[in-house]
Amino acid sequence: IKKIAVLTSGGDAPGMNPCIRAVVRTAIYHKLEVVGIRQGYQGLIDNNMYDMSPRSVSNILDLGGTILKTARCLPFRTDEGMEIAYNNLKAQGIDALVVIGGDGTFTGALRFSKKYPDIAVMGVPGTIDNDLCGTDYTLGFDTATNTVIEALDKIRDTADAHDRLFFIEVMGRDSGCIALRAGISCGAEAILLPEKETAIHELIEGLKAGEHNKKSSSIVIVAEGDKHGGAYDVAQMVKEEVKNYDVKVTILGHLQRGGSPSAFDRILGSRLGYAAVLGLLNGETQKMAGLKGNSVRLTSLEEALKVHEYKLEEDLMQMVEILSI
Ligand code: ATP
């Protein structure tokens, strides 16, 4: 390969910038030309690209978001859109593509690569949801979890001062990974997860036991993918039964996506960006660079997309109940 392009796509995630930096510098070190594509697949279709140098990625390690911008792009889902993208890449002499994003991004990359195998593709998992197979962690998950923890610590202060019961909704789509880890870190009294059925009557019993045990505050985390609806719905179902608490709801929302990447996400982004380029240089394609047991591994995009096989750790889920008595 001679010329590679890099893009970020889907939801932004802290750690994308360190990854872009690693891709650009590793590629240039190995005498490749590098093109940055703005706004994900939309930029491929709109020919929104620019040549990058080592200086294009100076001082971005600490930045949240993505300097390449990201987008959700409907036309790339069509054969016509893909053809335009392909022609634009060919016109620039680009023969390899690094895509940083989540499952939708990889689904698009795999389809594209099967249609046009002369352009090698390599994925890097960039999503706060941590919902991909083939990697223990995705970029942004650690930072987002730390952001949630910071918010929960503050909420605990006010909850405690007023004998309040808080229902906090956190992001993660169909994955309860952020909810579970943030909940353990902040001593949540209960965590409602998409991966685990929790009956409302059990939740109420647990909260009543907390009242009985003289807990001055309670925090219930509701993962956004939880089947009961959302934090407001759960609060409504529980309110009448726990009269000693003043019930409040907070939806943390998009603040969870922002912020300077944690040390973990900077290192992960650097490592996976570096590995993605080395993989392409070794002739690999249709793979994702991920971290398994602190080793970088390449997994086929097909494997990485088996999201339904991703499981939360049973022991962590069981531990929550015991540690919150
Ligand atoms: P996150 O997990 O943060 O939401 P994501 O990568 O899953 O990230 P999506 O919006 O689902 O985010 O996907 C990003 C882009 O990938 C889409 O906007 C679209 O351009 C492309 N894409 C998704 N699915 C397909 C598909 N089946 N075929 C072609 N392209 C697709």
UniProtKB/TrEMBL annotation:
<keyword id="KW-0460">Magnesium</keyword>
<comment type="function">
    <text>Catalyzes the phosphorylation of D-fructose 6-phosphate to fructose 1,6-bisphosphate by ATP, the first committing step of glycolysis.</text>
</comment>
<dbReference type="InterPro" id="IPR012828">
    <property type="entry name" value="PFKA_ATP_prok"/>
</dbReference>
<feature type="binding site" description="in other chain">
    <location>
        <position position="156"/>
    </location>
    <ligand>
        <name>ADP</name>
    </ligand>
</feature>
<feature type="domain" description="Phosphofructokinase">
    <location>
        <begin position="3"/>
        <end position="277"/>
    </location>
</feature>
<feature type="binding site">
    <location>
        <position position="248"/>
    </location>
    <ligand>
        <name>substrate</name>
    </ligand>
</feature>
<feature type="binding site">
    <location>
        <begin position="102"/>
        <end position="105"/>
    </location>
    <ligand>
        <name>ATP</name>
    </ligand>
</feature>
<feature type="binding site" description="in other chain">
    <location>
        <begin position="127"/>
        <end position="129"/>
    </location>
    <ligand>
        <name>substrate</name>
    </ligand>
</feature>
<keyword id="KW-0418">Kinase</keyword>
<feature type="binding site">
    <location>
        <position position="11"/>
    </location>
    <ligand>
        <name>ATP</name>
    </ligand>
</feature>
<dbReference type="InterPro" id="IPR022953">
    <property type="entry name" value="ATP_PFK"/>
</dbReference>
<feature type="binding site">
    <location>
        <begin position="21"/>
        <end position="25"/>
    </location>
    <ligand>
        <name>ADP</name>
    </ligand>
</feature>
<feature type="binding site">
    <location>
        <position position="103"/>
    </location>
    <ligand>
        <name>Mg(2+)</name>
    </ligand>
</feature>
<dbReference type="Pfam" id="PF00365">
    <property type="entry name" value="PFK"/>
</dbReference>
<keyword id="KW-0808">Transferase</keyword>
<keyword id="KW-0021">Allosteric enzyme</keyword>
<feature type="binding site">
    <location>
        <begin position="72"/>
        <end position="73"/>
    </location>
    <ligand>
        <name>ATP</name>
    </ligand>
</feature>
<dbReference type="GO" id="GO:0003872">
    <property type="term" value="F:6-phosphofructokinase activity"/>
</dbReference>
<feature type="active site" description="Proton acceptor">
    <location>
        <position position="129"/>
    </location>
</feature>
<keyword id="KW-0479">Metal-binding</keyword>
<dbReference type="InterPro" id="IPR000023">
    <property type="entry name" value="Phosphofructokinase_dom"/>
</dbReference>
<comment type="pathway">
    <text>Carbohydrate degradation; glycolysis; D-glyceraldehyde 3-phosphate and glycerone phosphate from D-glucose: step 3/4.</text>
</comment>
<comment type="similarity">
    <text>Belongs to the phosphofructokinase type A (PFKA) family. ATP-dependent PFK group I subfamily. Prokaryotic clade 'B1' sub-subfamily.</text>
</comment>
<dbReference type="InterPro" id="IPR015912">
    <property type="entry name" value="Phosphofructokinase_CS"/>
</dbReference>
<feature type="binding site" description="in other chain">
    <location>
        <position position="224"/>
    </location>
    <ligand>
        <name>substrate</name>
    </ligand>
</feature>
<comment type="subunit">
    <text>Homotetramer.</text>
</comment>
<feature type="binding site" description="in other chain">
    <location>
        <begin position="171"/>
        <end position="173"/>
    </location>
    <ligand>
        <name>substrate</name>
    </ligand>
</feature>
<dbReference type="InterPro" id="IPR035966">
    <property type="entry name" value="PKF_sf"/>
</dbReference>
<protein>
    <recommendedName>
        <fullName>ATP-dependent 6-phosphofructokinase</fullName>
        <ecNumber>2.7.1.11</ecNumber>
    </recommendedName>
</protein>
<feature type="binding site" description="in other chain">
    <location>
        <begin position="254"/>
        <end position="257"/>
    </location>
    <ligand>
        <name>substrate</name>
    </ligand>
</feature>
<keyword id="KW-0324">Glycolysis</keyword>
<feature type="binding site" description="in other chain">
    <location>
        <begin position="215"/>
        <end position="217"/>
    </location>
    <ligand>
        <name>ADP</name>
    </ligand>
</feature>
<feature type="binding site" description="in other chain">
    <location>
        <begin position="187"/>
        <end position="189"/>
    </location>
    <ligand>
        <name>ADP</name>
    </ligand>
</feature>
<dbReference type="InterPro" id="IPR012003">
    <property type="entry name" value="ATP_PFK_prok-type"/>
</dbReference>
<keyword id="KW-0067">ATP-binding</keyword>
<feature type="binding site">
    <location>
        <position position="164"/>
    </location>
    <ligand>
        <name>substrate</name>
    </ligand>
</feature>
<keyword id="KW-0963">Cytoplasm</keyword>
<keyword id="KW-0547">Nucleotide-binding</keyword>
